[in-house]
Each structure stands twice: as structure tokens, then as C-alpha cells.
Amino acid sequence: MIKINHKQKKTKQNIHLFTEESWVKLKSDFKWTEPYFYGKKGETFVLAGDSVDILIGLGKSDDLKSFEIQSIANKFSNDFKDKLKPISTSVFGLFSDEFMEEFVKGLYLGTYKYPFEKSHPVWNEKFELHFEIISESKAKEISATTEALCYGQFSGMDWLNKPANFKTVDKISEFLQKESKIHKIKYKSLNRKESQKAGLRAFLAVNQGSSQEAAFTILEYNGGEKNEPKIGLVGKCVLFDTGGISIKPSDNLHYMKSDMGGASAVIGTLLAVAQLKLPVNIVVILPITDNAVSERAYLPSDVITAYNGKTIEVLNTDAEGRMTLADGLSYMSKNYETDVMIDLATLTGSSVRMFGYTCAAYFSNNEELKKELENSADKTNQRLWNLPLWDVWEEDFKSDVADFKNISSKPFGDCIVAGKFLEQFIENHPNWAHLDIAGVAFGNVNYTKEKGATGYGVQLLLDYIKNFSKRNSNKN
Ligand SMILES: [Zn+2]
């Protein structure tokens, strides 16, 4: 339970936040700080006397963004995980509700480690935050939002970080079932046989080499009224990607446990939304499988008829994500009426080569949606950059023996080709976006030496969903 007190109290542990400018005005209140502290971004300094006063720098005050406060608090929380006491703690120097909210989010998101447990002192029940000026209702809201965000995002991150042998189809299905029960989410999952019957052959082509069952999973959260607009989310959920017969090189192959980054963002978002009981309707599709090598594995040159009847010539079994998503998207489009359909996937190395670890590449067929997503991306600093879906790219994956090849024969633009390929399976959905998060879902993080889950996507989608819900309630 995150405790935020709206009443001021004299406390023994105090956190003071300063911009460089506010520090100049207030530094005379603090002795012995020169030349140790100037209010520079991320700077910390501890003064101990009758109380412990921790100074944190926010940098220059002009143009200070709320997400910067969150990231400074996140880093502070991780750096001080063994140094904070679980006692009442006052926070000074944040003068807007938004800044206070971002500080609390950062403080708690910075407690993540794998596997997550609430061992950081801020989760101790004796830890309590006191802000200078905050209303009781805002304090409650920040506490509930942060708690739900951590719950959702940490669940998703834990799944992404799990080793391959802990990340089986059965285990994740069990988890999703359990969470669905707790949050009144409708759970349905098609195994291999049922997927066959449904005609999910592109998805099954990837699963056929696996020793594990397929689990084409559909989750429905109905927090809104029955006829209210619905959001569709599809997450790539390849639990481990060997590349299949087009096998990957062994260097860094262990990181291919991260090929369910799309699903982990979607799961994190869904759980946070459900925990907050947001008044929206969401349907989620996770085509869960691994991409394994065996005598049954699908082969380059195979021609597969996807769920929507279009045929795909498999030229590379490592381009499996788009096979599973092709069926995920067309299944959603044909069976659910969604007002917006967004898929997230760790899809291509090409997006990483283009943008590195700084932003996700995204594609959309709707200008409004582009603006809404970019707004949320800029606000949460989970950045997105739009790339084109020009028809000229379609030529690159026309096949001689099927409707499409699953990769282009040209050695470039795979990220765009993949987006254009997926567009063939959205069944003319007028409001769709595809987020290629290969570079941002898993990488260098402060809580672990090697690469780990970043939590990318949850805050972005949550912000988008909150705005979506607000827009619709304004219409009614
Ligand atoms: Zn692959």
C-alpha cells in the first residue's frame, strides 16, 4: 500500500528537490553543501544532523518536463534502495500535482528488480510520504495510480525477464487465467487443435515445430458500458525465438527470451487498467507460442493460408512474429468490433538499426490516431517515430507462388516491409497502429548488470487509454 499523507508533519527523513535556480535562492538554508551540490540534474547529496535531509537536483527549471522528474526519482529510488529508512518522509520542492505524481511514480517504479518483491523500504508499511500541499483526493489518486502502474508493469517485466525454461506456454497461461479471475477479465484460449479448427494456420505454422501447445489467447476487459467504444490490443508473444529452421547465430541468443516484449507491454497495461477499474472496454489477443527447431518445424518455401484466406510463402522462419500477428490481427478484426486496433511487437532488427534504443518505430493508417499516440509518447517519454505505409513497399513482398512472401528479397527496410505486411491482415480496419518496439522493450536498465525488461509501452498505452476514455465520456 502506497501511503501519501496530505497533512504536513515534521519528519526525520526529508527529500528536497531543487532546480538549479531554486537552489540559488534557498541554499542559505543548508550548511556545508558547497562544493557538493548545485541542483544539477540527478545530483544527490545527503545531510545528516537531527534529521536526514536528502537533496536531489532537477537541473534547469525552464522546460522541466514531468517525465524527467519521474526518471530522476526512479534513479534515486534504485540508488538509495539500501539507504532509505522505512519511516515518515517529507518531500519538498514539488509545486504541482503533476510533478508530485511523477515523483511518486518514479520512486516506486525505481523499486523494480527481477523477480519483483516489495523489499525496497518505500514498500514497507511504515514508510509514508508527506507533501507540502496536496489535496486528500489527489493524494489518494496518485497512490492508486502508482500502485496499479507498478502492479501491471512489474508483472509484464517479470514475464519478459524470466528465463526460457520458466517461461512456458502452460506457465504464462496459468498466470493469465489467475489474473483474469481476480480482475473479472474474460479468458479464452485456443490450443493447437482448437486453433486448427478456427483456421489460424499462420500462427500454427510457427507453433508446429514446438514441443509446447499453442495458446491463442483472448482476454476481454469490460469496464465500460456494453455499447461503448472498444480498444483492441494485440501483443506479439513468442516466448523464445530460435529463428526456427532459419536459425539465429548463437551470440546473444539467450536474449531471444525477450521476444514477448509486445505481450508484456499489453499484459502490463491490461492489468493496470483492470486494477484501476477504468471505464473502458478492451479486447486483447496474444498468440502465444515459441519458435523452435524440430523435425516438425515449418520450412522455408512452405506456403501457408492465413486466417483471412491470404497465402504466405515462408522465405524465412525467423520472420515468425508477423505470421503470428497476421492471424492475431485478422482474427480480432473479423470477430470483434473495435474502434481502434493497436499491435505491439519486438518485430524487426531493422527498427533497432534505424532508431537504436531511443524510440519505437510505428505505423498507422489514421492521422487522428497518430496524433493521439504521439501525444502520449511525448508525454511519457516512451517515444514513437512514424514511418510510411506507402503501397510501393508492397511490391517487395509479392510472391510468385502465394499472395505474399513473409520477407522482402531486398536487404533493407524490413521494419517497413513488416508493417506493410501486417496491413494486409487488418481487414480494412480504419484505425490501426503497429508499434515495432524491438529496440526499446529490453535493454540496459538500472536494476541489473545485463540487459533487462524496460517496461516500455505500459505508461504510453495507459495514457492513451485514459485519454480515449475521457474523449468518449465527453461525447456522451
Ligand atoms: Zn524471429
Structure, explained:
48% of the residues are buried. The protein has 476 residues and is α/β, with parallel strands linked by helices. Helix 3 packs parallel to helix 4, helix 7 packs antiparallel against helix 9 and helix 8 (261-276) crosses helix 13 (458-475). It has helices at residues 20-26, 66-79, 97-109, 136-161, 169-182, 192-198, 201-207, 261-276, 321-335, 349-355, 367-380, 414-423, 458-475; strands at residues 4-5, 13-19, 44-48, 52-59, 88-92, 128-131, 186-190, 215-222, 230-235, 237-241, 281-291, 303-305, 311-313, 340-345, 360-364, 384-386, 404-405, 432-436, 442-443, 452-453. The chain is elongated and about 80 Å long. A hairpin with a 5-residue loop joins strand 12 and strand 13 (311-313). It is built from 13 helices and 20 strands. The protein folds into two domains: 4-134, 3-Layer(aba) Sandwich (Leucine Aminopeptidase, subunit E, domain 1); 151-475, Aminopeptidase (3-Layer(aba) Sandwich), CATH 3.40.630.10. 35% of the residues lie in helices and 20% in strands. The structure holds zinc ion (ZN).
Q: Could you give a short account of the major beta sheet? A: 9 strands, mixed
Please give the domain count: 2
By helix and strand content, what is the structural category?
alpha/beta
Compute the number of helices: 13
Q: What small-molecule ligands were found?
A: zinc ion
- General shape: elongated
- Detail the poorly predicted runs: none
